[in-house]
Structures are given as C-alpha cells and as structure tokens.
Amino acid sequence: MPRLSSNFVIFVPFVVQSLLWQKGLAVCLLICLRQSDGSLLLAANRDERYDRPSSSPLLWGGKPRLWAGRDDQAGGTWLAVNEHGVVAAVTNRPIDVAPPKPTAGCTGQTPATRAQPPSTGLPGDQLNRPSRGGLPLLACRQATAKAAAMKTQEHLRGVAYNGFNLLIADRAAAYIVQNTGQPVLDSVSVGMHVMANRGWDDLADERVALAFGLIEKAGKGLHSGDTAQALEAMQSICRFHGQRGEPSLCIHSSLGGTVSSTLLAVSGEGKLLSYLFCPAAPCRGQYEELAGVLF
Questions:
Q1: CA distance linking residue 51 with residue 268, whole number of Å
Q2: Domain contains 101
Q3: Is residue 1 part of a domain?
Q4: In terms of pTM, does the model score above 0.90?
Q5: Of the ranges 2-16, 121-135, 271-285, the best mean pLDDT one
Q6: CA torsion 93→233→6→90, rounded to 10°?
Q7: 210 in a domain, yes or no?
C-alpha cells in the first residue's frame, strides 16, 4: 500500500471510458474518509450512460430507514445510508475469466467456443444475473456494518452476481467485498487504500494515482476536524479535470460521464450530519443539502 499520511479509504474503479459507454457500463469514484474516532466522510461520483434513468436520493420503505438514489432501469442503487450510520456503495468490475483448457479427444468445439450466456460487456458478465444495485440496499437493512457484511456474505453463498466491489462501513468497522468470480470479504482498517476495478491500491491506474495525489494535496482541509471544510475539499476533488489528454475524476464523453455526485458526513456516534447531492456533473451543477429535507 502506498505510504501516505492520509487516513481514509478510496475506492476508484475505472476502465477505458469510451468502451464502457458503448457497452452500457458504468464506472464510479468513491472516496471514504474513515477517522479514528469512527466518523465517516464520503464523496461519490456516479459515472454512467446519459440515457440511463435514475432518481435523486429518497427514503426507501422498510426497516431500518434508509436513503439512497435509485437506478430506475434496474431498480437498485449505487450508494445507500441508513438511520444507524451504515453506508454501502457498489461498483462494477470484470469477472476474472480464464479460458478453459481443451478437453482430450475434443472434436474441435472446446468449452471456450461453445455458446455462452449473453454478456453485458465486461469479461464474465451475464445478463441473467441480478442487479448489483440490490447489494447496498441489502447491506443497509442491517443495524451495523459487521451485521451487513455477514448478511451479504450469507446472501452471496446462494446467489451469483456479475463482478463487483462493495464497500460497507459504519463508525465501528469497514469491509470490502470483491467479486471476481468468487466473492471475498476483507476488513478495512483505518488508513488509506485505493481500489481500481481489479483490486486494491493499483497505482498503474492513472485515476487511482491522480486521486492519491489530490487527496495528499488537500491535506489539512480533510483533517482539520471541520466538517464543512472537509466537505468543501471533497467537492474540489470530485470536480477535478486534468489538462487535455490527462486523467480526470469528473469525466465526460459523448455517451456518458459523471451524472451525479454525493457527499455524506457521519459522526462518530453514527448520526448523519450532512447529505449533499448534485444531480449533475459536479463541475456543472451545485450540491444541495438534503439532510434537512430527507430526515
């Protein structure tokens, strides 16, 4: 893991943008600042096709109460938070697919050339699997991140999903579930980590390296103890554009790009202090405080 003084988790899945939009796939940026006192500060850019319908954060029915944006096409969400301060966010990633070895005596049709289930575009994806957007909702029906991680692990023993990364966190603990064919649950300690679409701390991914640099540069703005100042620093990071030909964290293309951005602040006692939502690319829109509207 890169040796940096920051004290948070970054989760940044990214694949070549134009190919993703052509295949109808999303990429996302998630930054989660987990402090030693249990407080959480989360910033998330949702990167998606422009023609994929969605709704702004709202209160979902059921217990415990939870709030989340809604993917109106598949019915799930990309990020959710509940009344106990449990936060969950999901992003897509490829399934690791090794080509099958030819069977002895085969007449020419190896397993690799037989008809396969229809794919959504990423390696290993199949259209007949449930939406990954249901996973944050499942996690946020639990009162703690630990219970959410256990519930998710139990659920995944019986249900196959396409590849994903799922972050679950609260004031007491944080977990990452990585599914590249076989889901793996890992705990996340206080400290900084970077995850690309294929794993942790992949500095070969230029957006991951960029995010590390921007957060390091923000420095005191994220660690002053002033929630408003930290949220302002997070907004600047989410809006960042590189020079022409350089990586950006707020992205745009003809078919898709950053379509919304969310900032959450949760206290060390699990109280939701702020829920800022921008219903457009953060470089073009304004964040609105929803905490007084939703709660």
A1: 38
A2: no
A3: no
A4: no
A5: 271-285
A6: -20
A7: yes
